[in-house]
Amino acid sequence: MWLAGGGIKGGVTYGETDDFSYNVTENPCHVNDLNATILHCLGIDHERFSFKFQGLEQRLTGVEPQRVVTEILA
Question: Of the residues 6, 26, 28, 60, which has the maximum number of CB atoms within 10 A of its CB?
């Protein structure tokens, strides 16, 4: 994924895959971690940002605790 501006470091590559781009070899990052990082850059607390769906509280980052990837933040 390509990110620019908004508090993201420029020219940084985070994570690495094998030669076939199938297996993660370095710094795995779940898509929910990426969502938490984007929400953090927008000034939104991803743990408190929830909405009701079919009577349950849902979050964009899922029900398990996610982390903000601080290694890519400026």
Answer: 60
Q: Return the DSSP state at 35.
A: H
Cα–Cα distance for residue pair 37/32, rounded to 1 Å: 9
Please list the pLDDT of the chain residue by residue as tens digits (74 residues). 788 888 888 888 888 999 998 999 999 988 899 889 988 998 988 888 888 899 888 888 888 888 999 998 88
CB 19 within 8 A of CB 54: no
- Say which residues have a Cβ less than 8 Å from residue 49's Cβ, sequence separation at least 6: 39, 59, 60
Residue 31 φ then ψ, to 5°: -65, -30
Provide CB contacts within 8 A for 53, sequence distance 6+. none
**pTM reported for the whole predicted model:** 0.78
